[in-house]
Structure formats: C-alpha cells, structure tokens
Design a protein that fits this description.
18-stranded antiparallel β-barrel, 4 helices, 52% strand, mainly beta, Porin
Length: 419
C-alpha cells in the first residue's frame, strides 16, 4: 500500500506544483468512530445453514479521519479509514466467497491505485486500513476539476439506482453516511443559467495482471439542464465496453416531487437491457411531527421475471452483481418508505420492498436517536419474507438442490461518535 500512496501523491503533486502556492488553510482533522453490534440468522436449508451458520454475529469498529487543505482555487482532501470486524461473520464471508466465487470481486484490486491494506486476518477477525478519499480539486467560477479517489452519485433513485454506475448503495444498506470512493478523473463546466456539463474517466485494472485495460474502464458525459420547473439529465457512458445512455427528469406535482431515470444499456455482446426507476416523494405534518414519504417503481432490465435458480442467472446480470452495480435478480419492484421525526432527537425510517414478480418482500426498519450533540445511536432490522424459490424467501442454488440463497435476517445497533 505504501508504494501506491507515494505514487499517487507524486501524480497529484506533479500536476499542481507549478500552480499551487501553499498559502492556504488546513482544516482541523475531523471524522467519526462507530461501534456496531449485529446479529443475523437464517434457516437450515439456506446457504448459510448449509455452511453451518444459522446464527451469525459481528462486532465492527470503524474509524474515519478527514483532513482538508485549501488555497484560493485548490483543495486537497484525504479520508483515512480503519475498519475492524470480529465474529462468525468473518468466517462465513470467507466460506461464502468460495461457494459463490463469481459474485465476489475484490474491488481494491481493480482500482487505478490500491490504497487499502489488510493489517491483520485471523480465523474470526480482520483489520483493514484504506484511503477512502484522496484527491486534489481545482475550482473556478465556471470550472471544476478533480483527480483521485472520490465519490460521485448520478440519478434520482431513492432505493434503486440504475443510473448510478459507480459504487451505488444497496437497497438494504444499513450505513449510507459515506459512499465508497472510486479512482477517477472528473471535470465539470458550470453555465450561468444553472446548467452544467460534467465528465469523468474511471481507469480500472485487470486483477489477474494488474494492468490498466480500456475494456474494464469507464468514461461518461452528463448534461444537467436546470429549467424553471423541471430539471433533466442526459448521460452517455462507456462502461466495461457496454454503452449506457440515460435520461433523467425531476419536477413538481402539487406539493410532491416526481422523478424518473430511464437507462438503456447496449451490450457489447449484443442486445439491449432497459432499466427504469420512477418515484414520487412528499413531505407533510402529522400532528406536530415532520414526515416525508415516497413510493418508487423499479424495472430491472437485467432481472428475471420467471422462476429461476442461481445457476440460471444470465452472465450480464452476474457480472453486475459482482461489480456491485446491481443487488437484485428480479424484474419488477415496488418500494415505499417513510422518514418520521418522532421527537427532535428520534427519527425512524421504515422501508418496504416488494418483488412484484414473485411477491416476496423485504422489510427494513432503521432509527436514529441523538444521545448527545456528537453521539448518536443507530438501530434497525432487515427481514426477508417469501416462500422458498423467491428472491427474498431464498433462491434455490440449483434445481432440486434444496439449498436456498436466502437473505439474512439482521438486527443491529451502532454507536457513532463524531469529532
């Protein structure tokens, strides 16, 4: 890891050394420490049960330190992340990787720079460190340029995000405070009317050879138009040799907001897969409480509508599951959720996701309670519901195997201290 960090620093410094005068300001280091306890369970005929893990426990600690140095036009940002996990979840994860090797890709090995390192790896514990953000940014009245590990999110999806090609959050993610960073070159031009044109390049390596390869990399352009009542985006991308287009719009309807993302993907191997996310969101007062709610429909162009097993999944779906671009195997979904302020210190967020093809469902409940100004308690559960052979009840691994890839039922509590 050390050699890669030095190389990364040299690349950034060589680009800016002739421009930057180090007369700016350094912000004090801030960040968080999170301690989480999580329990999961599954049935005897699940993959976890087959491997001997009907009950799984994990204790996780996350430490993030954020530093930033700024001059008139330049900003340098670094996030150091230290993550430790202990419990049977470590052993289960390793065995699961052996059981489903096609669905497990170490994304650190494909990044432009490998900025992560395993400090310790034992039977039931792991300790890793990484630079989750590490970039230089230049900004002027109309231009923005960033080089390095950063995070970017495109699209209007609230639960499902077909337009977000770079490390999107899973629909049932339990911590979405920081999106994982991606090595990229990013540029944006801002117009006087509020519109902008942005573009990026994401170089990736072949994990077997460590060579940068164009067919594994991505490049994209996105035009954002800011109208009087409507906002729209048009995107064109080359992603792993596939052509991805997108049209996105947002507008008001009465007191609510509607959004949609239409995303056709033209496969390099032939054929087109079209995904759609459309939602409506509104906010109101319920008694003296602030409430916002939404409903969202998602059409997974890569998903399957009929009954299937894990070995029936098409290759174009499997590779996107492995990359972390998709998280679902079905075709049509309906989700609805609320954000309810029970008190000024307590917020709860129930979420319900229904697979419209097999009628299985996922229920997620998350809550946040502010204990002190800089200390919060997060808690929640994820529960899958459905018959054997359904997505949230458990997809059979192969015909007549009687072993099902069943989502784990989870309960967790997390203390987060921010400094």
């Amino acid at each position: 890891m050390g050699k890669n960090i030095v190389k990364y620093l040299l690349v950034i410094l060589s680009l800016v050394s002739s421009t930057v005068v180090f007369s700016g300001s350094f912000e004090s280091v801030h960040g968080y420490i999170k301690l989480q306890q999580q329990y999961s369970n599954s049935s005897d005929d699940s993959v976890a049960g087959f491997l001997g893990y009907t009950s799984i426990q994990a204790t996780t600690i996350d430490f993030r330190a954020i530093g930033q140095y700024s001059t008139d036009h330049w900003t340098f940002v670094g996030h150091y992340l230290l993550t430790g996990i202990r419990g049977s979840a470590v052993e289960f994860s390793r065995e699961l990787e052996e059981y489903f090797p096609a669905l497990n890709v170490d994304r650190d090995d494909t990044q432009w720079f490998n900025l992560s390192h395993t400090l310790s790896s034992k039977d039931n514990s792991e300790l890793k460190q990484s630079l989750d953000r590490f970039y230089a940014a230049y900004s002027s009245e109309h231009a923005v340029f960033k080089l390095g590990r950063q995070a970017i999110s495109w699209g209007n999806g609230l639960v499902f995000r077909p337009m977000d090609l770079f490390n999107p959050f899973a629909p049932d993610a339990i911590d979405t405070s920081y999106k994982p960073g991606t090595d990229m070159v990013y540029g944006q031009w801002l117009f006087d009317n509020g519109s902008d044109l942005s573009g990026l390049i994401v170089p990736r390596r072949n994990p077997d050879t460590s060579n940068l390869e164009s067919e594994l990399s991505s490049a994209a352009l996105k035009w954002h138009y800011f109208g009087q009542t409507l906002e729209s985006d048009a995107m064109l991308a080359v992603d792993y040799d596939d052509i991805v287009a997108a049209l996105s719009m947002t507008g008001p309807i009465s007191q609510a907001i509607w959004r949609f993302d239409l995303v056709p993907t033209f496969l390099d191997s032939g054929g087109t897969r079209t995904s759609l996310a459309a939602n409506m969101e509104n906010a109101w007062q319920w008694g003296a409480k602030n409430v916002s709610g939404f409903v969202e429909y998602f059409r997974n162009g890569f998903g399957l509508a009929d009954s299937y097993t894990m070995i029936d999944l098409p290759e174009d779906l499997v590779v996107r599951l492995a990359r972390g671009q998709l998280f679902n195997t079905g075709r049509d979904y309906l989700s609805t959720g609320l954000r309810l302020e029970m008190t000024p210190l307590l917020q709860i967020n129930p979420l319900f996701i229904l697979n419209l093809n097999d009628q299985s469902a996922l229920f997620s409940f998350q809550g946040t309670y502010s204990l002190l100004q800089d200390l919060t308690l997060d808690f929640g559960v994820n529960i899958g519901m459905g018959a054997n052979g359904t997505e949230y009840g458990g997809i059979e691994t192969s015909p007549e195997s009687d072993i099902y890839n069943e989502p784990l039922n989870q309960i967790y509590a997390r203390l987060a201290y921010f400094f």
